[in-house]
Amino acid sequence: MAGQLTGFERRVLGALESAPSRVPVVLGGCGTGRTVLLQRLRERLGRGAAQYIDIERCATTPERFLQAVTGASPFPWHAAERKPATAREAFDMLLVFFDTARAPGGEPCTFLLDEVLELRTFESFPGLRHVLRDLLEGLAASPNRFVLTTRYIARAHRLLRDATSRFEVMHQPALTPADVTDMLAPAFNGYEQMPSDDRDYLGRAVQALTDGRAAYVHAIGNTMAQMDRTADPVSALTALLSPEGALNHWCRFCYELRLHRARGYGALKAILDVLAEEEPLTLTEISHRLHRTPGSTKDYLSWLEDVDLVTSRQKRYSFTDPVLRLWVRLHCHPVPPTEEDVAREIQHYALGRLPSPDAAPVLAYAGVEATVDERKSWGIIEID
How far is residue 260 CA from its own chain's centroid? Predict the structure, then answer.
């Protein structure tokens, strides 16, 4: 799984290997590849020297979290049998473990903390009002090495505003067309035999449709590989965003997760509905459509920005993730969309994002040459 290091992975490793080591804080939205990055780092560093912890999955109570982390750790701990008396004591013991654990030979070890801001849930326990601040102070003073990730970019920037210079913010980069081309290769039999222009065009097209998000690229590649030999990314995206499609369920998860981490659930959904119909819009335009005052609308928008669902550029608001906006247009209605609804919306979406169709490729990835009749512009038709 380790494979050849990407430029971004080399940057993260460079921060870990500096003297003294820095703490990379990797920020990126849903599906951008943060978890894959950490898993690749664990393989690169060695499972005996690095521990990956998915905090989102196991952050229940401080006591049980401590037990889960230390119980699954490759690093021995002298206080493993000691039982904490309170939630605060359990969290303090966790900080001691992060500070004193060592790899074989007594060398510093590496902790890979995925979705670190989920530890904020501990702030409802007595004595744990400033969990994240205390965590950063503990990690900054430790001789061990750490990589932190989170999907909540705005919150991470606020948290790190007063942190020490040991923490280095790194934004997970979107995949480039060349990255997408490389990622698609394993999904297709005979992909290397495609003309280079066709491969390059396919990479640009999939990158444009997915906004360079690794999870979407992976899903489109796998779906195309399972379809017939003339399958194309627009058809794959249509299948994936149908009511039974994998990206429908993925987008629903990301949508609900972020809304439940924010305030004002119903009003925030209403604003997302408004922006799904038209974007970008100003505060005044949104408040008119929402039939709310500009003041209350500004609060709602700030809460959406807080969980990175919307982005403001030059005082105009739009979705951060264009695929999620497409999902809202399709699925946030009283009834599921029909096949015709899905096809129509995705064609509109694709027409606005795909590169010039003059050289749409023939996807003979199965090792079978396509006929002239199979050369098509990916099922896209002009829509009035």
Answer: 17
